[in-house]
Amino acid sequence: EVQLAESGGGLIQPGGSLRLSCAASGFTVSSDFMSWVRQAPGKGLEWLSIIYPDGATYYADSVKGRFTISRDTSKNTLHLQMNSLRADDTAVYYCGASDRPNLGDYWGQGTLVTVSS
Amino acid sequence: EIVLTQSPATLSLSPGERATLSCRASQSVSSYLAWYQQKPGQAPRLLIYETFNRATAIPTRFSGSGSGTDFTLTISSLEPEDFAVYYCQQGFHWPTFGQGTKVEIK
User: Fold this and answer.
1) For A34-64, how does the pLDDT look when each residue is reduced to its tens digit (9 = 90+)?
2) What span, in angstroms and rounded, lies between the C-alpha atoms of B75 and A102?
3) SS3 annotation, B16-44
4) How many CB pairs under 8 A join A and B?
5) Which of A12, A68, B1, B39 minimizes the number of CB atoms within 10 Å of its CB?
6) Which residues of B touch A47 (CB under 8 A)?
7) Residues of A with CB below 8 A from B87's CB?
8) What is the β-pairing status of strands A45-51 and A33-39?
């Protein structure tokens, strides 16, 4: 059974950094298209980043240069390093997996990031 | 960026009724259109991918159609668990979502 579990969210001051993790089971993160998507409180969904099986990475303009997606194959875990955080980065962050690009077959339960002083 | 516009914003229906949700793209997305269901406090759940393909374990009452810029999600007969928010998402270029349609109990 495919399972994804995010962690690492919390309260952080503007300008700070945070690293989110997504532990995967039931499949190998390096064999799938892995993504991060976020949802601001009461708002819709925004696709942030994708890492392909070949290691190529892609980002939304809103996070390019501030966020970095990576994976740890030894721990079967996906990461999102978030730097220079702003108030409008406040959201629930979900990791997703698919055997197709630009799709999310499976999602974790999400982790809340709150950027506030 | 491809903008997806969903209509209506809210759909008020009774269990057993048919629901028809629309999604219009600002430019062609070929057949790369997916639909997700989201309930409060939960992650999105993939229902339909590439316009009409049902995802794993999705009931047959959910169906998708369309092409190019105009797409439809149909729920043939609403079950109590189907009342939720539905998002369309295109994967032709950088993925984007529509703003959502809330299906509520009338």
Assistant:
1) 999 999 999 999 999 999 999 999 999 999 9
2) 24
3) CCCEEEEEEECCCCCCCEEEEEECCCCCC
4) 53
5) B1
6) 89, 94-97
7) 44-45
8) antiparallel
